[in-house]
Amino acid sequence: MNAQFKKGALELCVLTMLADKDRYGYELTDEISARMEIATGTLYLVLKRLKDDNLVTTYLQESENGPARKYYHLSDEGRKYQEDLKKEWVQFVKAIDEIIGGRYE
Amino acid sequence: MNKQEYMYNLFEALRPFDEDVRNEIISDYEEHFADGLACGKTEEQIVEELGPIDELISELKDLKGKKKKGFDFDSMDISKAADNLVKGIAGLVGSFAGTVTKGAEKMGESFSEGVDGFADSFTKTVTNAAEKVYNKGSEFAKDISDSYKATRNTESDTTDATTDEANGSSDDCTEIVVEGDCANIYVTASPDNVARINYANHGTANQQLAYAFECYQKGATLYGTAKRKSFGITNFFKTLTSPRIDLTVEVPRDFKAVTFKTASGEIKITGISARKAVISDVSGSIDMRSCGFETLKINNISGHVTVDGVNSDDIVAETISGGINVAAAVAGLRTVTTSGRINILTRNAEKVDAATVSGSIDMKLDGCSGISANVSSVSGRIDLACGESVVRGTKSGKFTLGNGSTAVKASSVSGSISVEGR
Lengths: 105, 422
Hints:
The structure holds two protein chains of two kinds.
Chain A: H1 3-20, E1 23-24, H2 25-35, H3 40-52, E2 56-61, E3 69-74, H4 76-103
Antiparallel strand pairs in A: 1-3, 2-3
Helix pairs in contact in A: 1-3, 1-4, 2-3
Chain B: H1 3-13, H2 19-38, H3 43-50, H4 53-64, H5 77-111, H6 117-127, H7 139-143, E1 153-154, E2 164-170, E3 175-180, E4 183-189, E5 195-201, H8 205-210, E6 211-218, E7 221-228, H9 234-237, E8 245-251, E9 255-264, E10 267-270, E11 273-283, E12 286-299, E13 305-318, E14 324-336, E15 342-347, E16 351-356, E17 361-366, E18 370-377, E19 382-386, E20 389-394, E21 396-402, E22 406-412, E23 417-421
Parallel strand pairs in B: 3-7, 3-9, 4-8, 4-10, 9-11, 10-12, 11-12, 12-13, 13-14, 14-15, 14-16, 15-17, 16-22, 17-23, 18-22, 19-23
Antiparallel strand pairs in B: 1-2, 2-5, 5-8, 6-7, 18-21, 19-20
């Protein structure tokens, strides 16, 4: 997958999944990797980038087994960004659809 | 690839990056493994899903140009451990190349019937292989005491068709240095105060020919080395099945110094006492029991370190990938690992340091009336207790419990820390 394209798409996936509730790393990466073929490791970099850009915040919470989990929380800024990104994405996909979905066949 | 290998490779690949970036990614991955395993996946499956480390690194480089220009790893114990690893490997390769060259020179001298006393005597010893040569305290020994002294006993292969054996001994040395490439090293106390090194190569005929055992004394030090007969370091990295080589060592009581090194093999040491001990392994476990030292230094790269029932003023135990267990009466103790648990049980300790990246730390300090703790964990829980003073569920900081007499430093990135003085 094209790197820029993938970057934006994965960002949107992660941000959207965080819109309804806070989630931890494995929860996010497992859900996404179940639907598309990606190296889950790189998703942690997506999360890191979002965090560095203050679109998400993190906090630690004890887990029943193993080390404490890092939870990701969508910030207000992130929420706004997610909405904008989603709109852009939908327009983009619509445009692509129109092209590949018949008009130029 | 299993988790340990993957995390080790990751750790190595992350070396050029900032410490906080490294720690964050290592800790994210550790958490991911823990959750994945809890969901019933195998380590190999999780490794597969996480994907190639190269890919992560190239994306990380794109991320923010956070890559450092130079290498500056001295800011933290863990970083030092990583640094030591590289130095260790470089040193190992260097010293290996050095000893091989020296060995080659020596062999050349010996077999070309050189004119000096050592070469002459050594050649005789080798050519009269069937004859057992002991010369403890003999004139021969005096004659060459300034250069080399060796007692070598090479048994003919006919006595034991499957094992190549050789040995050396000395009754007037105060230090011993034993090194092997792929040898297991087993050390016990000498029953009669004679230092002995026994070599046994259990490999095939070709493998036996490929390795040489040398034993000689220089000054007060008895040296024993089991090395591949290769010239140049490239051979060191060739994949070739290694034979099982055992170096069995007997050390007299109250020795001055002992050094045991191997690249791949286990090291087991029981019941010896020496002022100074240096133990190092690259890949294999190190196990020490019922020993007494003034200073003990253990360096491993991939393997567990166990120190049980040891008395020593000072102990330093380091490994990269493996747990560390120490039960010792020790004044100053320092343990460092990158990927592994640290369990410590000490008596009357004054200063205890423990650092790990991914693993928990458990300390039980007997004979302890107070703790000055400096503890930190990024994602683990920290519990401290000493008598009536208790600190539970903290994240990091400095704490004084009781009279604060024992200085404790503990840090983990993704593991919990428990310290109990009693």
